[in-house]
Fold:
Amino acid sequence: MIRVGIVGGTGYTGVELLRLLVNHPQVEVAVITSRAEEGVAVADLYPSLRGHLDLAFSVPDVDALAACDAVFFATPHGVAQAMMPSLIERGVRVIDLSADFRIQDIAVWEKWYAQAHACPELVPQAVYGLPEVYREQIKTAQLVACPGCYPTATQLGFLPLLENNLVDASDLIANAASGASGAGRQAKVDNLLTEVSDSFKAYACGGHRHLPEIEQGLRAAQPAGATEAKLTFVPHLLPMIRGIHATLYANLTDKSVDLQALFEERYANEPFVDVLPAGSHPQTRTVKSSNMCRLSVFNPQDSDKVVVLSVIDNLTKGASGQAVQNLNIMFGFEETAGLDQVALLP
Amino acid sequence: MIRVGIVGGTGYTGVELLRLLVNHPQVEVAVITSRAEEGVAVADLYPSLRGHLDLAFSVPDVDALAACDAVFFATPHGVAQAMMPSLIERGVRVIDLSADFRIQDIAVWEKWYAQAHACPELVPQAVYGLPEVYREQIKTAQLVACPGCYPTATQLGFLPLLENNLVDASDLIANAASGASGAGRQAKVDNLLTEVSDSFKAYACGGHRHLPEIEQGLRAAQPAGATEAKLTFVPHLLPMIRGIHATLYANLTDKSVDLQALFEERYANEPFVDVLPAGSHPQTRTVKSSNMCRLSVFNPQDSDKVVVLSVIDNLTKGASGQAVQNLNIMFGFEETAGLDQVALLP
Amino acid sequence: MIRVGIVGGTGYTGVELLRLLVNHPQVEVAVITSRAEEGVAVADLYPSLRGHLDLAFSVPDVDALAACDAVFFATPHGVAQAMMPSLIERGVRVIDLSADFRIQDIAVWEKWYAQAHACPELVPQAVYGLPEVYREQIKTAQLVACPGCYPTATQLGFLPLLENNLVDASDLIANAASGASGAGRQAKVDNLLTEVSDSFKAYACGGHRHLPEIEQGLRAAQPAGATEAKLTFVPHLLPMIRGIHATLYANLTDKSVDLQALFEERYANEPFVDVLPAGSHPQTRTVKSSNMCRLSVFNPQDSDKVVVLSVIDNLTKGASGQAVQNLNIMFGFEETAGLDQVALLP
Amino acid sequence: MIRVGIVGGTGYTGVELLRLLVNHPQVEVAVITSRAEEGVAVADLYPSLRGHLDLAFSVPDVDALAACDAVFFATPHGVAQAMMPSLIERGVRVIDLSADFRIQDIAVWEKWYAQAHACPELVPQAVYGLPEVYREQIKTAQLVACPGCYPTATQLGFLPLLENNLVDASDLIANAASGASGAGRQAKVDNLLTEVSDSFKAYACGGHRHLPEIEQGLRAAQPAGATEAKLTFVPHLLPMIRGIHATLYANLTDKSVDLQALFEERYANEPFVDVLPAGSHPQTRTVKSSNMCRLSVFNPQDSDKVVVLSVIDNLTKGASGQAVQNLNIMFGFEETAGLDQVALLP
Structure:
């Protein structure tokens, strides 16, 4: 049994962490912080937790957090980097769900997040928390930077193609769509039901912060000498709460490959990646509330084009579920501990 | 570890049973039947179960079912009553999610379901599977008739008032609303997204089959000599998948009672009934995917009127979750086994 | 052709007024005000109006408004009452969509709206803008107070019963549900898609501001000597944008009446009230975007209970459409001018 | 005033035609056919039309249809081609909303629709009803084949680029998403609210029937000598009723062009195509219930990639609205007659 803390527990990734952790056999949630809700019982803010958790929000306190075996940051970007040195120094293992330590190139991070990085010295030791690529490094990491939601769905879809250099990496497209929970629990007119429901739109077509993160991940997966991966990324907003669907396009450079076999083999031993039978189309509802990523691969009209479909729950595999998966790896627990929920369907 | 069978596993209560049972620590799903889908892997029909269940639908077979410790019926009305005698005779314990054995008065059943009852002789021994009232009888029952979804939400809301004879029982109103999954997985124009979403309506205002079931349950809860409970019941259809919300109205005959305390005391030891703090309004999303019923009680403007708000997930506490709760009671398992999921919020 | 102004045009009742007025054959929208969006083209805020309206928001200015033949207030409560004297004095005819002039008893208004009324002297001359009751007075009114959304649906449903003293007026129930646009276009966490969609709840069960407005209207409809109407009102929030559904309950004091005929006769000449055939259930989608109210009346199980179902679009007949209907009556236009849209179905 | 008939009026394109035509100043709907609903009042099937239309469905009868000035086919594919010769011969002008006459190459049609074409001899005279390209031919056409919904959104987005040969036409991608009304009003499990809502998926990734129609249209728009347009088309299903959003990708061969100006000039005189200001993202809700197509064009990160966003209401500009637009052109009416509705927002 380990004791964990959560910094910034009032948002959707916070409550999702709690949903998963309160039934985790080896974890006790010891601390959950929020300045705005100090003293409020978590179950008063999120009645879904009534009967499952008897804990109140407290003001972030380094001593209380340092007394935990692991600390999750479920905060907006900028917060984790400010508190990180004091926790790292005291030996706490940290899993950061925010964007603060995902990008290794500080200049790139600062450009896309439009602020100075408060803690560049710790970035090099941050391990990118995509277990399907970095499982070994995660085992011993002290600081894990959990991938973003779009980056998770997109990288898992492209990886088999890029690792084997089977496509023209200079012209990749990710057409992705997310449920509204991706925007978080913030009071903005743009996120009202009356504005978002019963409609669909692209956004950030000129450039989204997840683009550099995805490109970094894709490039790291390429063999030496391959043309550097370059992505066009267009996110869209779905009129629903949970779910990400990525439709990925690339041009095959080698048409002889058996795409279905390639994908099945790549993920044969992955507990949270499921390659669907040939011809199937994954639906986001088949992963709702689950940590699974489901994938399909197509070669339409026998052309040069390969189309990969990838679905995750943005709050689970796209955030808090993956964070728990990382925790399990870091502490030597069963990788699926606390993550065995069947997707909620219908 | 017991072996269970499910008759009629292709519908929504069937897949919901599977969602709960595949993670139940003391249950193995051994048989699942469907004539239409014989030989099809369950996970092919419901991809949410991929990786959780390796079982195919089979044609209903009494021998195979009789080899189970318990059998669930997740069938339309009329099916369970036809197969019941052969299973009961062979000692199998049966949990029927359909309406076949809920109503003790055969004439009433036959009137509302517009057909002859095929097995009236077993009706008297059927125990009504509402644990909050019949827990003791359920422990030893061979045949449990699980309550309907509306009846569960409505009875749990009215029980404290009727058991204590605090309202005019001759004038009760249940204004209830259900998600579309209550109509099942049937190909009907009326249930298309294009017909049901983005709209709201009452239905069956002239009389719904759950009315006699609710009245039977309410009357059974009344003390001797009380005026017989009589209900006006108007169901409505919500543009969403899961959830029932019942708004209950009655006229207080004794205004001195502390309603909040009454409800809290009645359900103090119930693992799946949660009385919210005074002034709270339960939301269906706080019970989505969970077996919990959440209740609030109001006395608006200090009038004679009492208003009770009651929410459940119609597929969980309103059907398959309650069925598993009954199984746990029948077999002496922890009552919450397999039912500890936190509601999916957001 | 008359010139109209709209004060507070950035909210949902504002844009709904524009949707209707830009195609009104006898109206030109000359002024639309907003302090926050001064100088912004209306079609930039609401792209649905691109190509239909070439007008920018301006700061409220009494001279500009006084140059209009009619002025609509589509503002939060408190705004209209502050500006009203200067406009009334200059002879402008005003249609107020807010709650400022709906309630004749100033003390009641001040209690429910928790502030002092800034302009009590004009309240007596305000005509309540429910054309089905006050058409004659509206024709010559200078100040029309448009009914709220719940009050419109509720009063139209109860009127035939109360006007003819056919029910026990002391025990009326209105169980109503509204789409989320009823909460307006305000940045609040409670109104986010992630909080409101895929869920259902009651709210304000202890008392809603529309209660005194409804009771005032119902009482005014009763014949002399009748027991004063008293209502229990429970509003609910629907996971959709538009539509109100009211389910009304009362106890018949005279069971001999032909309810269907009563309702059909009451509304035979009303262009915007449609009594459905006996046995039908109105759906909110049959009035979406239209100014129609559709009604059904039931007498379930031949009991003493009468159940009336009433649907409107909360932004149209419940707000802006009714405002235009009032304008038409006030200026002698065809009552249906600008209001002939067919509901958007599917 | 012309008299029109509608064959197959029970589906969603049928009721959408009626919504538009009952308020068309120069059109009287004289006949509406349905074998299944013969004798049923249209307003009984679609209560939204109560008070707007007093007409009953009749069995299709050539004489009755031939007495109309124009006949719309709102039927599944295969129906129009069977009845077409008798109507064409008698001089009726026909607007076919189905796929029967959209594709000029009979072999292609027969391959994708998997049946023999019953009337290949009339295909050459059919004019493709996309007014933005074929307005002149439509004026005098006797038979107009209305474009499909995806083809309308996709072609309007690609046209400016292809007509001017600015992109590599051999590698076009259309990633499109449609509301569920695109699947029609058919009783299928796959279209139930419980299956489709709260989820998102791609479908027909291996090949959709609209692909050859789109490619035919794109190729017709190319200048002589250009590389033949080749499209990868992946449709997706949105959890909502109305709306199509197409996200189009191509590689620029000439980066010097001013894309915003190109699009604005191309559509400057089109009443139903609206090019949004640079940097805007069109939302489907800004065209809901309207005949408008709204477009945006992007050049992300100043790369070679051009991204076009295109939204329509699939039942209006994607079907019935465009059909009325064609009728207006054919009969010399104002092109916008009956089509001046403002989109329903919110």
Observations:
- Residues 197 and 239 of chain B are 4 Å apart (CA to CA).
